[in-house]
Amino acid sequence: MRDCARNRCWTARSPPGDGGRMPQLSPYRRLFRLPGARAFTAGNLLARLPMGMFSVSAVMMIAGTRGSYALAGAVTATGLAATALVAPWTARLVDRHGQARVALPATVIAVLGSLSLLLCVRHDAPDWTLFASYAATATTPNTGGMSRARWAHLLAGDAKALHTANSFEQAADELCFMLGPVLAAFLCGTLFPEAGTLFGAALLLTGMVLFTTRRATEPPVRAHISGRAPLRAPGIPPLLAVCLAMGGVFGATEVVTLAFADAQGRQPAAGIVLALQAAGSCAAGLLYGAVKPAGPAAARLPWCVAAMAALLTLPLLAAALTGSLLLLAAALLVAGMATAPTMVTTMTLVQERTPEGRMNEGMTLAVTGLLGGIACGSAIGGWTVEHLSPTAGYVVPLTAAAVALALSARAPSNRFTECLAPH
Fold first, then answer.
1. Which pTM was predicted?
2. Which positions, given as ranges, span the membrane (predicted)?
């Protein structure tokens, strides 16, 4: 591991004073013995939690005040599209000028957009102001990507510790998207419709201030950054295609599960069912980070995607054969266990293939691919539910996983197809 602030940081393998011997600690305890790791992680988690709150809060706030789910959905879709366009540019600025100089001002703009949305809804402003306000929140930095970039800087040369860090970050993502919607629904439902957006904006700004002020662990800004954009780097475009297909899995599963629960008159339970899926992924991510992965990430990815595709047959079978929401919840819990290992392996490959000095941009491109896939999956899943049935809708995420498997198997530098081919 490279030195940090003149040897103030030490490697995850050999803390000072142990005579070169590593005490018997869990991989996660070794990880957070690094100076500054706990501080920047705490700030990042505070800033990341609102990511699971904002869309739910906006829908509940707009629909509750204006009485139109169509308007609420259109506003949030506009924000998603704006984020897909703006996020890579924000990440590029972060790589060029540093996290503290770019991320905090970008966050302030996003928070002002959230507050503007709140005021426009509360004071019955014209509909177009809602679209403009929510589009402004697209400047929100990729908080998870910046945290992963710090780990990559601190743990350079220690592949095992970096694997543990990436697994923790994926588990944190799942935890935030599990708790965020529940917290947003609670605040909007028990206090006032704007409470979720207001609290989320406060959390985002507070967390980003805490995160960006921890300068000792921030990756250094390079005087010269490679002219090759991550999008043109070898191996990145196939990974983005895989991310697009995997996003289809997530988007379709969410919409179809909401429709399935609604068809049984139990729509409020859908949030718990989806939270169980995220819980399964969170638990699997922490376990995956505690074990030593076998083989290179490029060879592991197709097997992880294959496991995801295989486990996604369980929700389809539970819905088709039993129609039980309880059994569907159990099936999604198990199916979710393939998500984190797949995403950890994908992000590891993105880190390996992204040109030096462009880490935030590379990982944000992967997130953008996921967002695009989520939008497509939501649209296709919604069409299938409306024209066929909620049960048939579970074919959509399974199909998206099969597409991701085909793409990952055909990607360069993996031996998946070689293992399956006859000798």
1. 0.74
2. 45-63, 70-90, 102-121, 238-260, 272-291, 303-321, 327-350, 362-385, 391-409
